[in-house]
């Protein structure tokens, strides 16, 4: 008898799918609180805007997850994503750093990209579960969120090229 998270039995892939979705829901919810702080801490206008834009996407991703939970007849709450707690804590540490603006922005980008990579992995996993379980509409919704995370990561990479140069010469 395998146990997962809050002690729920994992009897099949659908049980794991629901718990993984709950983890993503928790992660995205935590991120809605972190992104405005990251935007406030950023000094580069494009980085500020990027964090603000991603907040809107994150809210849409939460709505997609809520739609999936409604379709499954499941509650999205009940699990705390500890990985996102750690990633958010690292971002908060960077926000508090006394650093030259470009250096702080470079650190915020690094924190943001760690979050994006975690989310890309999470969405890719549950998208695959949805496909295997025959939840095609869920897979489409999850693929949209996964692509947004990839796009955000790419935008952060592009921003980092100039900001890292500025940080190097600070």
TrEMBL record:
<dbReference type="InterPro" id="IPR047114">
    <property type="entry name" value="YciF"/>
</dbReference>
<dbReference type="InterPro" id="IPR012347">
    <property type="entry name" value="Ferritin-like"/>
</dbReference>
<dbReference type="InterPro" id="IPR010287">
    <property type="entry name" value="DUF892_YciF-like"/>
</dbReference>
<keyword id="KW-0614">Plasmid</keyword>
<dbReference type="Pfam" id="PF05974">
    <property type="entry name" value="DUF892"/>
</dbReference>
<dbReference type="InterPro" id="IPR009078">
    <property type="entry name" value="Ferritin-like_SF"/>
</dbReference>
<protein>
    <submittedName>
        <fullName>Ferritin-like domain-containing protein</fullName>
    </submittedName>
</protein>
């Amino acid at each position: 008898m395998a146990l997962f998270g809050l002690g729920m039995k994992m009897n099949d892939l659908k049980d794991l799918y629901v718990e993984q979705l709950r983890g993503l829901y928790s992660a995205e919810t935590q991120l809605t609180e972190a992104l405005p702080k990251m935007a406030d801490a950023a000094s580069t206008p494009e980085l500020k805007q990027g964090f603000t834009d991603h907040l809107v996407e994150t809210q849409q991703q939460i709505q997609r997850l809520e739609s999936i939970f409604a379709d499954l007849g499941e509650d999205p709450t009940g699990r705390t994503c500890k990985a996102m707690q750690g990633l958010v804590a690292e971002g908060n540490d960077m926000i508090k750093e006394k650093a030259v603006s470009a250096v702080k922005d470079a650190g915020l980008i690094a924190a943001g990209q760690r979050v994006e990579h975690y989310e890309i992995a999470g969405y890719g996993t549950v998208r695959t579960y949805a496909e295997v379980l025959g939840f095609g509409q869920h897979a489409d919704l999850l693929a949209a969120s996964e692509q947004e995370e990839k796009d955000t990561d790419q935008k952060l990479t592009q921003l980092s090229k100039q900001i890292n140069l500025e940080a190097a010469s600070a």
